[in-house]
DNA sequence: ATCGCAGGCCAAAGCGCTTTGGATATCGAA
DNA sequence: TTCGATATCCAAAGCGCTTTGGCCTGCGAT
């Protein structure tokens, strides 16, 4: 059932039917009602390719998810980010064009999406420290919003980000206030911009009290449970074991907790954990008080907001760079407590 | 840069340029070379909407991800499934149209994708016990592949599934062989078809040895860490505590382990865990031997295979229902061992 | 010299929609 | 009665591509 069929069926021109369906005023209410009814009855839905070709708008946004080429990992935060994005988009009649891009192909992916007219805008995920994508997207003239920010990028661009530096500064201060001074940071991959900012916040907090962490107490890796476990185990067994650990994700915190408990130590008493919590639906930090003391910022909310912004940029191309900084709140859980003044934990089991 | 520009620039007709680019034989090799070179030089990429309108093929497949309406949860397995799917698709020039659909809207989502010509086929995720989607998709005439199977569906349809029943039968037998008889099952949501099959395999295994589990030892919930923790804690504290636990995901297994260790018990000695492992990149079951004894089947591989099948159905619409059953392998980890003959664990700490 | 045929190219007709630029009818005001 | 608004509707021109159905040209066969 296409427009031609429908209009001849109604004894009207395609123009009139199209206008009736799209809410234009040049059509009588009686006719509009008749058209809408017929359209519903026959399940007519305009072909989006044809419509898109005629209007020049794709009614879709691109979500380019980088597949870490070294690790071939797809971060599960995308599932929640997309859930947020999807809500906003479907409410406005947009679709999501998903592209997985691994490293080299990524430039081609953007160019292709733009040139083939598949999308009206894109979301840039997982920005790196000096990300080349900004310049390329600007050159392409494709509206975009970065989920995260890019250190070393001078030009203005639209982004939504959590205040990673401040969040980790807060988390660090929290631990320092509890008397901890040997604090470790289990962070995301080194080239990720967010990891850089988190480390920054951590170091600033330490420096403000005249402290400086051991180099081996700052580790970067994909944020998996076994990274948390392995890194924590190693640190607890070495000299100058940390009394508190900052982790970049709940999954890593799970691993840290396992390592601590495997040593016969108690989380929140012998070793404290403060984690960042993206509020992923399948990794809830539940309990009252919650299991982990955490800096909390919903990635799903970020997805909603990011798309709100992108749609705004698409609707009004000139409306300048939009920027949203989300604040993470520190929630006190059971995983952090005052430092114990006793023998280093490393020897607790020896 | 569109076809018209490119062809007038080359002094050729649009027909010839189009044919040259698409590999038709009616164009001399010399001309073809000239065209390809010019296209590359000017970064020409055919507008996919126009092409799609002309050919009738969308060159995109739909991935409809159900957002559990009760729980608003997006299962992280989709991230990995999509990674597999993306590999296959991008190699063949297809794009992914992602739709999040929550319950009621889902029918509309499929209808809309089909009617608007946005996709050439779809993947159906998370099938329920008696899923209405099969009938609807068949009526729509849209090629589709189900990721999972549908009990109570008589008509033939294309699917790819892991042999859930056999996997859990294997896992159960493994535990039974180790002498366990009080085995619990922490399963996914009750209306999910896979959960049903897993329970089946479990019950079959038990019945084969004349055993039948306690009703409260079979639990259904979203597969989160805290479900594993809470359920395990409760069971260990009650009468007739299980000596072994079967979990439906690594995340749930994490929770079960935490509960066991919190009771001062040792996983693999006091209480065994066998989990299903979807081999999610961010939830690796690492170690040698691995941390968890598990039935292993890569969901990423399933994604690849599912799209291979879907593309086949799209290319040759009549090629009949395609069905792939994947076998999960049982890998022995450190989380399962022979049953201890001693006082019930419930009292271990009292 | 003529014919047939293949190779190489092109004009134009779609694909299904939106949108421009009228056309026609109606109606109150002059 | 005549005239401009208004309100309704319509024919046709795109959007950028593919594809059908030719049109030439040259060449070997008749």
Written overview of the protein:
The structure is a homodimer of 350-residue chains. Chain A has 350 residues and is α/β, with parallel strands linked by helices. Chain A is 41% helix and 16% strand. Chain A is built from 12 helices and 12 strands. A 6-stranded parallel sheet of chain A has the order 2-1-3-4-5-11, with helices on both faces. In chain A, strands 7-6-8-9-10-12 form a 6-stranded mixed sheet, sandwiched between helices. In chain A, strand 8 (244-247), helix 11 and strand 9 form a beta-alpha-beta unit. In chain A, helix 5 packs across helix 12 (299-315) and helix 6 (105-115) runs parallel beside helix 7. The N and C termini of chain A lie far apart (78 Å). Residues 344-350 of chain A have low confidence and may be disordered. Chains A and B meet through helix 4, strand 1, helix 5, strand 2 and helix 6 of A and helix 4, strand 1, helix 5, strand 2 and helix 6 of B. Strand 2 (95-101) of chain A pairs antiparallel with strand 2 (95-101) of chain B. Chain A binds a DNA duplex (30 and 30 nucleotides) through helix 2 and helix 4. Chains A, B: InterPro entries: HTH_LacI, LacI/GalR-like_sensor, Lambda_DNA-bd_dom_sf, Peripla_BP_I. Chains A, B: Pfam families: LacI, Peripla_BP_3. Chains A, B: Keywords: DNA-binding, Transcription, Transcription regulation. Chains A, B: This is Substrate-binding domain-containing protein. Chains A, B: Residues 1-55 form the HTH lacI-type domain.
Please outline the helices and strands.
The structure is a homodimer.
Chain A: H1 3-10, H2 14-21, H3 29-41, H4 48-55, E1 60-66, H5 77-91, E2 95-101, H6 105-115, E3 121-124, H7 133-140, E4 144-147, E5 159-162, H8 164-177, E6 183-187, H9 193-208, E7 218-220, H10 225-237, E8 244-247, H11 250-262, E9 272-277, E10 293-296, H12 299-315, E11 323-326, E12 329-331
Parallel strand pairs in A: 1-2, 1-3, 3-4, 4-5, 5-11, 6-7, 6-8, 8-9, 9-10
Antiparallel strand pairs in A: 10-12
Helix pairs in contact in A: 1-2, 5-12, 6-7, 8-9, 10-11
Chain A binds a DNA duplex (30 and 30 nucleotides) through helix 2 and helix 4.
């Amino acid at each position: 059932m296409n427009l031609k069929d429908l209009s001849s069926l109604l004894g009207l021109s395609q123009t009139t039917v199209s206008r009736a369906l799209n809410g234009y005023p040049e059509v009588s209410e009686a006719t509009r009602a008749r058209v809408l009814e017929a359209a519903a009855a026959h399940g007519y839905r305009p072909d989006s390719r044809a419509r898109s070709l005629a209007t020049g708008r794709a009614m879709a946004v691109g979500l380019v998810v980088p597949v870490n080429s070294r690790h071939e990992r797809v971060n599960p935060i995308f599932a929640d980010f997309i859930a947020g994005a999807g809500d906003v988009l479907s409410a406005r009649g947009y679709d999501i064009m998903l592209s997985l891009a691994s490293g080299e192909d990524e430039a081609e992916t953007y160019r292709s999406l733009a040139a083939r007219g598949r999308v009206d805008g894109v979301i840039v995920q997982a920005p790196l420290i000096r990300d080349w994508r900004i310049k390329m997207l600007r050159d392409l003239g494709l509206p975009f919003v970065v989920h995260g920010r890019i250190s070393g990028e001078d030009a203005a661009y639209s982004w939504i980000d959590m205040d990673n530096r401040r969040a980790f500064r807060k988390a660090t201060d929290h631990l320092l206030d509890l008397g901890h001074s040997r604090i470790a940071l289990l962070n995301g991959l080194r080239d990720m911009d967010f990891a850089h900012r988190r480390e920054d916040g951590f170091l600033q907090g330490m420096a403000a009290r005249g402290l400086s962490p051991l180099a081996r107490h700052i580790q970067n890796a994909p944020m998996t449970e076994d990274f948390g476990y392995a890194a924590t185990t190693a640190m607890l067994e070495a000299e100058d074991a940390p009394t508190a650990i900052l982790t970049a994700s709940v999954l890593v915190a799970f691993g840290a907790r396992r390592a601590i408990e495997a040593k016969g130590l108690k989380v929140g008493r012998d070793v404290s954990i403060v984690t960042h919590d993206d509020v992923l639906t399948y990794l809830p930090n539940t309990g009252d008080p919650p299991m982990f003391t955490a800096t909390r910022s919903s990635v799903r909310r970020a997805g909603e907001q990011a798309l709100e912004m992108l749609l705004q940029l698409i609707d009004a191309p000139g409306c300048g760079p939009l920027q949203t900084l989300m604040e993470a709140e520190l929630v006190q859980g059971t995983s952090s407590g005052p430092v114990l003044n006793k023998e280093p934990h490393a020897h607790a089991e020896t």
